[in-house]
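Progress note, project year one: complex with flavin-adenine dinucleotide.
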Amino acid sequence: MDRKSGQSERSGLSRRQLLSGIAVGALVVGFDPISRTWVTAAQAATTSSFDNVPKLDGTIYFDTDTRTAHSYDQGNIVQQMPAAVLRPGSVNDVAKMIQYCKQRGIKVAPQGGGQGRPNSVFGYGLVSGGLVIETRWLNTIHSIGPDSADVDAGVQWIDLIKAAYAKGLTPPSITGYTQLSVGGTLSIGGIGAWSTNRAGAQVDHTRQVQVVTGTGDVVDASMDKNSDLFQAALGGLGQCGVITRAKVDLVPAKQLARTYQIPYTDISMFFSDIRTLINRTTGQPTFDIVINVCSPGTASPLALWATIFYNQGDTPNTDALFTGLSPAAQSAQFTDYNYLDYIFLVDSIYDGFKATANWEAKVKPWINLQVPDDAVEQFVQSVIPTLTPEDIGPTGFLLIWPNLRSSFTRPLVRVPSAGKWVWTFGILTESADPGPNPTFASQMTERNKQLYDKAYALGGTRYPEDAIPFTAADWKNHYGSMWSTFNNWKKKYDPSNILTPGSGIFG
Ligand SMILES: Cc1cc2nc3c(=O)[nH]c(=O)nc-3n(C[C@H](O)[C@H](O)[C@H](O)COP(=O)(O)OP(=O)(O)OC[C@H]3O[C@@H](n4cnc5c(N)ncnc54)[C@H](O)[C@@H]3O)c2cc1C
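Model obtained:
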């Protein structure tokens, strides 16, 4: 019995698989290169010739239920049916299957996601007729040291945050929702919407990654070793390799969080106050994170959430924090939380939506833009009045928050090229009813393209966790000065172009 995978060597099946009742006959044992179809155990006896899949620690599934579960993502906009799903029992399984697929021209897509289904919203982790690699089965937290953690890519951030906090530590940059895989957010960026305006994304706090490239090689990469692969993997949307393990920064955690909520009806006043707060100099009282979170189901007003982390006996000085702000800010109410209760607040909201609002079935044509500092107010002033309640939806949010531009250090995470701050402008649009709803999806993704074009004309970029229809020319523009380098990395590390086709970056 393999301790990590819990698999019986004789049958090749884990106890979990046996208990789940999936028919042994539905498990994949090979690929027929003539008919270009996978061969199951049940078909093997009657198939004259096929290429055996390598001996694996995990298992490949072929049954309709498993494939269907991996044919769509959190967005419920795109559906692409994979031919088979790998639940790896080891990194070697990932390497062996990528080599196997490369030799046969089979496309491969890694998927993170809590329940195995990607959290992306526009099909970037899907693969039609190819092999899905479900990374959540590689989920060991190998070690937590004084300032870093070494984890498998299938670990969810929520589990790492809990384990680190037990040692008084926390990641410096934390996403709003934390039921996301380490490999999944590192492949996009992982912008810290909930913990800081000044520490960049999770990729900026990643020291080393282990990657299985598109040639099936297992490679360690950092800024000192294989630095091109390191940069290609971080924010690289799975184009050059599957991240299987990462070493990420941890910092000392505070015990408590105090969150002030300030409603605004006047956009200029909102920006004036938020700029006062973020531009305070060292030594002045400062919030750790300020972010606009519009209430679900409304297009306005703006509501600033300003949070400061602190320890027992070091209570924040409200008067000092609010000095110099508008009269609107003086009406702010605050709530105190234990650190983890604050960090998991967004998870608790979405857990509630899952339980009561059929959230996972909703159509989610989200948009997330990065707008330059000097254009953000003009952009927000022009967009907010055009939004209707349907643009947000009963479980949606409108988010606006600044991030220090110099804190973004990875070249494939594209941010505007000038200004001290970049502003993330996100409309997390969600349908009122469960999907699919192609009319709503196409109406909202078209809106997204128009908003993107408007932001792009102002020097803005896109954070590609969202649903914006992109042509090859759009991707080229998106990567700008990095396009030819990214192309070269792709040719070097995925020469057969089999990895992660869903975004269409490389055709
Ligand atoms: C409710 C909610 C809130 C969110 N809040 C934030 C936020 O605050 N900040 C933020 O930055 N993001 C946020 N996200 C977006 C999140 O970063 C993406 O959904 C991301 O896709 C992570 O999800 P995942 O782990 O399921 O990865 P997936 O969706 O499975 O993967 C994302 C992409 O990376 C690829 N990929 C997955 N795993 C790997 C791997 N190991 N190696 C290489 N490529 C891989 C996939 O093929 C896909 O193209 C949020 C998402 C949700 C649903």
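The chain is about 25% helix and 20% strand.
The chain has a mean pLDDT of 92.
No further modelling is planned for this target in the current period.
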